[in-house]
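Run log // design_07
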């Protein structure tokens, strides 16, 4: 048998190893293709096989490559290794493909043509989050200086009584919170969609709200862009825009298209319009612009969990799926072997119920935010070991403990039994916030006595925030009369749960009155008094200690653990080298600020290995970070209605502006306009603020339900869901002790429905979704 015949046999064997939905991807022969994959469907594995088969089928090489794009460097490295492994199994060279992040690909294109892209990478540098925050504040101050009338309209807000103290408080919260948040939200949303400040100005002419929210946003965006240019800084969206400017030149575009045979995109539900435009352009035919692109997009709209705090929007991938479906170019990877069938049935029920509720309440199709596709168990002869395993206990259990303390006791007892009996298995507690994670970790510590390791992911991440926390406290002790520095320091203390949560705008508006109240001053609240006492102790330490010893004191005051204290000491040693032992605190702060901006300081870590799913271990992790991971046993506590789906909330300090927040209204207005333009409606209708606020609230609730769906599809053998009858009013202000006040809470609305569904379904092996 000759080599071609052997290769054909190997191709067929490789294809036959795939499931039915995966085979459609492997059979791709060109043109657009949408692949909607359910959780646990093995999309990375099938994407790697499909890539290897396409490289072999079309004889791709270094000058005519398959380009695979994803969104993180770790995901890119993983896919690259999988494709190489498949090519090795076929005894083929590995020069016919490249795997890159979208921003890395854009930078590669832009850097080759600086005259066209407008990016001079020798002069420009990528902006860091700290620099971005600083530039946003500069943009806000410039806007206030130039637009005094608009600023004072915001200050007056609603129900303004003319009192000077109230005026100053409103000015402070506008400067430090509301306007920077508006600028941050709008700039990311607009730039990722290719909108310029001029485009926002044009949109603002179509609205007539009292404050002129989009007009304010356009002014902030314009000033921020000027700051970037003046300091020769770029952000990630600038890379995409620069690459598109290069590809607008027809000869260069054709050159790139001739080198790119096709583009495969992973995690397509997280793509923005600008990113979609870039990969569609690259996948085009250089000889015929009207020819459909060789573009394969793989994703799951139901796992889009970043759209409320990033510009990602699952609606665009859903629309791509609809377009491909009309052309018979949509396939669904609906078979998954990860979880027991009872977990699959529960997850399917949740998705269908939420989609039905969405359509009933919004009068809009569910496809705007969800894609109703059932997860199906794999056939008995599937090669995946232990596919759709036997359930532990009932497979899915829904409980309503009396309090959150009873919840964590039940979790601790159950995990202790499970991991003692099956130490080769792993467990996870999935929480919505890091505050919940800390509470769970504290009550699971006793498991260590039974040889069960407890790994709180949030604790490891807190180590990396040590430099920022040190900076915030040092800036405060050097300039305690600065409202911004006082507020930043109090935020650190609240985050570390050292003082109760409170309205910091009121506290920080007048630092002198707060820190050193006169005998005639109104008494502080108990919470504010505790915060004042803590701050005064920090100020006394500043007088008594040199700056390098002050860092260790601050670490002790913040109740750092061993690794965090070691990180604080490493930071002090670094500052001594740069400033000297006799240096002043101001120089040390400036040096620390430069160190943070350059992002060249790494925390001291006790264990740098990947510890997410080790056997015999319980991991405590947020739902967001759990995407892409799995465990044998999954516990999801604290499923109260005010957490999932929750509701859009106007912070107390911002309520003087009305029943909405400026940033969320502006985001909803921009998205509405973009959706209409994407579908060819021009000029778009811009919703008024209250309508936009209601849209923002619906989008938040939809995303929270998608997040619950992602969490429910992580465990393999047991899914344990709990909604305590009594829980804290706010986890941010919850001290975690039994003396804390708890309130009666309603469960997440889908939980009772899920319980009834499971009761109707009968035995574990007789589920019928």
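design_07 sequence
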């Amino acid at each position: 048998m000759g080599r071609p015949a052997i290769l054909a046999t190997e191709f067929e064997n490789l294809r036959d190893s795939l499931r039915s939905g995966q085979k459609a991807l492997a059979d791709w022969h060109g043109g657009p293709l949408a692949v909607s994959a359910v959780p646990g469907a093995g999309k990375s594995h099938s994407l790697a096989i499909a890539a290897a088969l396409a490289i072999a089928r079309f004889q791709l090489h270094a000058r005519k490559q398959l380009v695979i794009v994803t969104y993180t460097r770790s995901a890119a490295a993983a896919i690259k290794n999988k494709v190489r492994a498949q090519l090795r199994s076929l005894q083929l060279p590995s020069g016919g493909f490249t795997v890159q992040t979208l921003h890395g690909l854009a930078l590669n294109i832009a850097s080759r043509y600086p005259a066209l892209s407008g990016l001079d990478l020798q002069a420009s540098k990528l902006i860091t989050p700290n620099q971005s925050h600083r530039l946003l504040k500069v943009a806000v101050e410039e806007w206030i200086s130039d637009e005094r009338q608009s600023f004072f309209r915001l200050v007056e807000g609603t129900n303004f009584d003319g009192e000077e103290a109230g005026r100053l408080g409103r000015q402070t919260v506008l400067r430090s919170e509301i306007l920077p948040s508006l600028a941050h939200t709008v700039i990311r949303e607009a730039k990722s969609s290719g909108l310029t400040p001029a485009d926002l100005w044009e949109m603002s002419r179509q609205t007539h709200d009292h404050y002129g929210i989009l007009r304010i946003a356009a002014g902030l965006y314009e000033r921020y862009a000027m700051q970037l240019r003046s300091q020769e800084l770029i952000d990630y969206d600038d890379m995409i825009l620069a690459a598109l400017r290069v590809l607008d030149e027809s000869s260069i575009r054709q050159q790139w298209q001739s080198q790119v045979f096709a583009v495969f995109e992973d995690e397509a539900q997280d793509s923005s319009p600008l990113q979609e435009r870039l990969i569609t352009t690259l996948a085009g035919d250089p000889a015929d612009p009207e020819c459909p692109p060789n573009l394969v997009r793989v994703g799951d709209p139901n796992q889009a969990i970043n759209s409320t705090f990033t510009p990602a929007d699952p609606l665009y991938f859903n629309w791509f799926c609809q377009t491909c479906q009309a052309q018979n170019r949509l396939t669904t990877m609906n078979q998954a072997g990860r979880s027991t069938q009872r977990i699959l049935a529960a997850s399917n029920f949740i998705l269908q119920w939420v989609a039905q509720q969405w359509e009933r309440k919004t009068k809009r199709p569910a496809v705007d935010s969800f894609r109703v596709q059932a997860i199906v168990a794999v056939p008995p002869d599937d090669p995946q070991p232990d596919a759709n395993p036997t359930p532990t206990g009932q497979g899915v259990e829904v409980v309503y403990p009396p309090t959150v303390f009873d919840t964590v006791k039940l979790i601790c007892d159950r995990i202790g039994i499970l991991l003692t009996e099956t130490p080769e298995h792993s467990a996870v507690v999935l929480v919505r916030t890091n505050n919940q994670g800390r509470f769970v970790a504290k009550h699971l510590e006793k498991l260590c006595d039974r040889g069960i390791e407890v790994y709180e992911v949030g604790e490891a991440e807190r180590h990396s925030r040590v430099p920022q926390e040190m900076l915030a406290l040092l800036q405060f002790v050097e300039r305690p009369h600065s409202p911004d520095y006082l507020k930043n320091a109090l935020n650190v203390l609240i985050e570390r749960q050292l003082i109760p949560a409170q309205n910091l705008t009121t506290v920080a508006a007048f630092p002198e009155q707060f820190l050193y109240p006169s005998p005639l001053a109104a008494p502080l609240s108990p919470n504010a008094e505790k915060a004042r006492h803590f701050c005064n102790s920090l100020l006394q330490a500043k007088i008594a200690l040199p700056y390098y010893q002050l860092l260790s004191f601050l670490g002790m005051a913040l109740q750092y653990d061993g690794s965090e204290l070691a990180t604080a000491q490493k930071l002090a040693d670094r500052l001594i080298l740069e400033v000297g032992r006799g240096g002043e605190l101001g120089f040390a702060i400036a040096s620390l600020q430069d160190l943070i901006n350059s992002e060249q300081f790494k925390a001291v870590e006790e264990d740098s290995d990947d510890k997410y799913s080790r056997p015999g271990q319980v991991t405590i992790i947020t739902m967001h970070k759990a995407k892409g991971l799995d465990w044998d046993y999954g516990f999801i506590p604290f499923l109260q209605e005010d957490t999932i789906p929750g509701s859009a909330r106007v912070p107390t300090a911002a309520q003087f502006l009305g029943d909405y927040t400026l940033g969320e209204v502006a985001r909803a207005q921009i998205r509405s306009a973009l959706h209409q333009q994407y579908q060819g409606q021009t000029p778009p209708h811009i919703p008024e603020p209250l309508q936009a606020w209601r849209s923002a609230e619906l989008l938040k609730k939809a995303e929270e339900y998608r997040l619950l769906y992602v969490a429910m599809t992580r465990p393999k053998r047991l899914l344990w869901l709990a909604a305590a009858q009594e829980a804290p009013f706010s986890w941010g202000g919850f001290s975690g002790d039994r003396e804390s006040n708890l309130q009666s809470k309603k469960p997440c609305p889908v939980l009772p429905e899920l319980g009834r569904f499971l009761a109707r379904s009968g035995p574990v092996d007789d589920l019928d979704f």
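The longest strand covers residues 715-722.
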